[in-house]
Amino acid sequence: MPVDVLAEVLANTRLSSDCQILALAAPEIAAQTRPGQFVMVKAASGTDPLLRRPFSVFEILRDRTGTVIGLSLLSRRVGVTTGQLFDMEPGARVACLGPLGRAFTLADPPAEAWMVAGGVGLAPFATLAETLAARGVPLTLFLGGRCAADLFCLDLFERLGARLSLATEDGSVGHHGIVTEPLTRALAARPASQPVSIYACGPEPMLAAVGRIAAEHGRPAELAMERIMGCGVGGCYSCVVRVRDAIGRTRFVRSCLEGPVFKGEDIVWD
Q1: In which domain, by residue range, is 68 found?
Q2: What is the SS3 assignment for 239?
Q3: Distance of alpha carbon 173 from alpha carbon 126, whole angstroms
Q4: Contact status, residue 52 vs residue 232, Cβ threshold 8 Å
Q5: 95 in helix, strand or coil?
Q6: Are residues 161 and 219 both part of a single domain?
Q7: CA 13 to CA 34: how far, in whole Å?
Q8: Up-side HSE of residue 40: CA atoms within 13 Å toward CB?
Q9: Nearest-CA neighbor of 95 among 131, 127, 55, 37?
């Protein structure tokens, strides 16, 4: 069950001039969180902004004994809430509600897990990678950004044994282009007899492309949708996603309840 806590900031690691990892003491939430779930956060006690904002849980934090002590959030400063979070120092307090939403379906060996992220779309994949590595699932991270400075936390994924496939639009690191291009090449080269599960998070045009590419190669894909949410608990209907059911009918569902993770084949993009 989701819980609402006033979480203390444990650390604020600024990765660049606008990106950060914020560590929060919220063990009650972290102990329940599954990969792909999110929290609703309010960084200030005033009315600007009035509503909380959703953030994927990046890491589950543990002390030296392995006891869960909190969670972290990966975010980019783009608005009021993310600006407030960026400026926070240890000891500050953040209202945090969670865990919320539908989690990823976990792959099992011998299937491989391929994670496709654009920029801070990396956010749900630290917990996923850690969980899958513990299950013995081979990992590949396809990570794209505008330039090398947009590619974060590569050492974290390398420690978990993930193979990295990087892409930058300016060609400063890895493939010169967008991240779906090396994904397409990798799928084309992979025999159909070798199973792979695809997970993606990032801008919606990227998610639509990943869903299409996965379907063309007959591979399952789960997409974490980055929708604006007003409440996170299904009350405001601000985060609807159009989906197709098993007999081809379309309907709108609330991402905060039936997502944020959806099967790629179920989403109707146009």
Answers
A1: 3-100
A2: coil
A3: 21
A4: yes
A5: strand
A6: yes
A7: 23
A8: 21
A9: 55
pLDDT of res. 246: 82
Give the largest Cα separation in the chain, rounded: 56
Whether the pTM exceeds 0.85: the reply is yes
**pLDDT single digits (tens) 148-181:** 999 999 999 999 999 999 999 999 999 999 999 9
Indicate the SS3 state at residue 86: helix
Please tell me the total count of domains within the chain.
Answer: 3
Residue that is written with structure tokens 């959806």 in the block: 262
Domain membership flag for residue 29? yes
List, for residues 211-234, the tens digit of each pLDDT value. 999 999 999 999 999 888 889 999
> Are both 10 and 44 inside the same structural domain?
yes
Other C-beta atoms within 10 Å of 139: how many? 21
Q: Is residue 267 part of a domain?
A: yes
Are 270 and 216 within one domain? Answer: no
Write out the two tokens for 63: 């002390």
CA distances from 142 to 34, 60, 101 (A): 21, 22, 24
How far is 124 from 110, CA to CA, in rounded Å? 22
Q: Which two tokens stand for residue 231?
A: 């409440």
> Are residues 121 and 43 located together in one domain of the fold?
no
Say whether both 142 and 94 belong to one domain: no
Instruction: Please list the rounded mean pLDDT of every run of 10 residues in the chain (270 residues).
Output: 96 96 98 98 83 96 97 95 95 96 97 96 98 98 96 97 98 97 98 97 96 97 92 91 90 95 95
Distance from C-alpha of 58 to C-alpha of 61, rounded to nearest angstrom:
10
